[in-house]
Amino acid sequence: MIFSGVILSALLTLLLCDCAQSRRVECKTDCCSFVEGFPLRLRELRSAYKEIQKFYESNDDLEPLLNEDIKHNINSPYGCHVMNEILHFYLETILPTALQKNPLKHSTTPIDSIGNIFQELKRDMVKCKRYFSCQNPFEVNSLKNSYEKMKEKGVYKAMGELDLLFRYIEQYLASKRVKH
């Protein structure tokens, strides 16, 4: 069940924007703390990904996997289901395949780190389902079908777009932060 120059530029912009910065909020629930603490996890994700990003982006010459439809679905009233499905897809398919096909033996640690944070994120998303006011479920089959059509290059595409997935996750969780 349950996530290039232009992308790099967008990533740098997000790192500098207010939504990526941690701010103090008095949380009374674990779910609020999870959402408010996400910028720290996001920095950890981006740091781990930076170690392997060039390899995956240099092997990616395919159309986007994480397209505008995914972004739209993440920002919809059923975004928590979308996040859950995409995280599941990355945890069960993408990251294990990346580890298997990994010619850069030193990069298993960043992939493991991303997987561990995704695992925690998925657990917390499920635990906080009510906090996110989830509605209709997301159907991840179109994402999986696109990935399968890419055959062996699909893992490069999916791993090459992790920064985009990080941004989608960040935008979704930032939209759930306590407003002042």
Automatic annotation (TrEMBL):
Keywords: Cytokine, Disulfide bond, Secreted, Signal. GO terms for biological process: defense response to bacterium; immune response; interleukin-10-mediated signaling pathway; negative regulation of inflammatory response; positive regulation of receptor signaling pathway via JAK-STAT; regulation of cytokine production; regulation of Notch signaling pathway; response to lipopolysaccharide. The keyword Disulfide bond applies. It comes from Danio rerio (Zebrafish). The keyword Secreted applies. One of its GO terms (cellular component) is extracellular space. Residues 1-22 form the signal peptide. The gene is il10. This is Interleukin family protein. Pfam families: IL10. SMART domains: IL10.
